[in-house]
Specification:
The structure holds two protein chains of two kinds. Chain A starts with 5 loop residues before the first strand and ends in a 7-residue tail after the last strand. In chain A, strands 3, 7, 8, 9, 13 and 14 form a six-stranded antiparallel beta sheet that branches. Chain A has a four-stranded antiparallel beta sheet with strand order 4-5-6-10. Chain A has a two-stranded antiparallel ribbon with strand order 11-12. Chain A is mainly beta. An eight-stranded antiparallel beta sheet of chain B has the order 1-2-3-6-5-4-7-8, with no helix packed on it. Chain B has no helices and eight strands. Chain B starts with 6 loop residues before the first strand and ends in a 5-residue tail after the last strand. By secondary structure, chain B is mainly beta. Classes of the chains: A mainly beta, B mainly beta. Strand 2 of chain A pairs parallel with strand 2 of chain B.
Chain lengths: 196, 126
């Protein structure tokens, strides 16, 4: 049985405008062998400073992963991988929440700080505005996120996640070590609310 | 970024204290920086394998009724090991006409969902 409590406090906060960090990297072949067909994939990459990342290749790759990977596994529990461990839970109210923690291998490969982004995400075959804003933090941090309502990219509205829907999350990690990067992707099926 | 006066909120059955440090805004999002003392259990190694993970997300609404959704975040143990430091983002950008933003941070662990709520005045935003 879920319990909900709320505490209130008025905080005198001031604001300022900061520039959003933009990540521009070049892609190189992943060291992992043909992970695209997996629902739980990813790999380590190198970033060549002279290469620009064309939006097409990773986007097409991510969409292909989403389209051809069956969502046979619920977005619950722990998803381990050489790059990171992801844990999912859907709240009783319907929000799908996750944690994202780098593996020791990834920490060593990427360096003491990492920028985690989510350039692509999909619901039932269509790209949505990814639900993760880039965060640059020490490599031991938990890079968490959630999804409930979403908007399709390119118009056509959006919606709220529904039990049984197929989703794909594609993370891209830029390391503080020169020319290091990794990616991670998961395709899974939205579980019923209250599933862990 | 401006300091907010280090005001504090008891969270997670009163066992932890959340301090809201600052609100920053961009043209597409906003981010709340915070710390938690003592640190969140999941941030202090070793984390028992059987312990249910703690999930966190943000919900927000301004005084005009505009709603904002979670845009992810990150938190971890401070270098001195005394607190959790983190930030959590929301989207879209806060409406220019809004004067106040009410933020709700939701903590989900197992079957227990708890939230804390605080209001951030926006009158001085640029």
């Amino acid at each position: 049985m879920a319990s909900r409590t709320v505490s209130r406090l008025t905080v005198a906060a001031l604001c300022a405008v900061t520039a959003a960090a933009l990540l521009a990297v070049g892609a190189a072949p992943a060291s992992a062998a043909a992970p695209d067909a997996q629902a739980n994939g990813g790999g380590f990459r190198t970033v060549a400073a002279s290469e620009g990342l064309t939006a097409d290749s990773p986007a097409a790759r991510a969409l292909a992963v989403h389209l051809r990977t069956p969502a046979n596994t619920l977005c619950t529990g722990t998803w381990t991988h050489a790059v990171s461990t992801v844990q999912f839970q859907r709240s009783p109210g319907g929000t799908l929440a996750w944690s994202f923690k780098l593996s020791n291998t990834a920490k060593a490969a990427l360096g003491p700080a990492v920028t985690v982004t989510m350039p692509y995400s999909y619901v039932n075959g269509r790209a949505i505005n990814p639900p993760y804003h880039p965060h640059t933090e020490p490599n031991w941090y938990n890079f968490h996120g959630s999804l409930n309502s979403y908007q399709f990219i390119g118009g056509g509205g959006g919606g709220t996640i529904q039990t049984g829907s197929k989703v794909t999350f594609y993370w891209f990690l830029k390391g503080s070590k020169p020319n290091t990067a990794a990616d991670r992707y998961i395709t899974c099926q939205i579980p019923t609310p209250g599933s862990a | 970024m401006h300091d907010d006066g280090k005001q504090r909120i008891r969270i997670l059955d009163g066992r932890h204290e959340l301090t809201v440090h600052a609100l920053t805004m961009t043209t597409e999002a906003f981010t709340v920086a915070y710390s938690v003392t003592p640190p969140l259990p999941d941030d202090v190694p070793p984390v028992p394998p059987a312990a249910p993970p703690l999930f966190l997300w943000l919900e927000a609404v301004d005084d005009l009724g505009n709603q904002y959704t979670d845009y992810g975040g990150a938190h971890g143990l401070s270098t001195d090991g005394l607190r959790t430091e983190g930030s959590v983002s929301g989207r879209p950008a806060i409406a220019a006409e809004a004067a106040c933003l009410t933020v709700r941070m939701v903590f989900l662990r197992g079957a227990s969902e708890q939230a804390c709520e605080f209001s951030l005045p926006l009158s001085d935003k640029g």
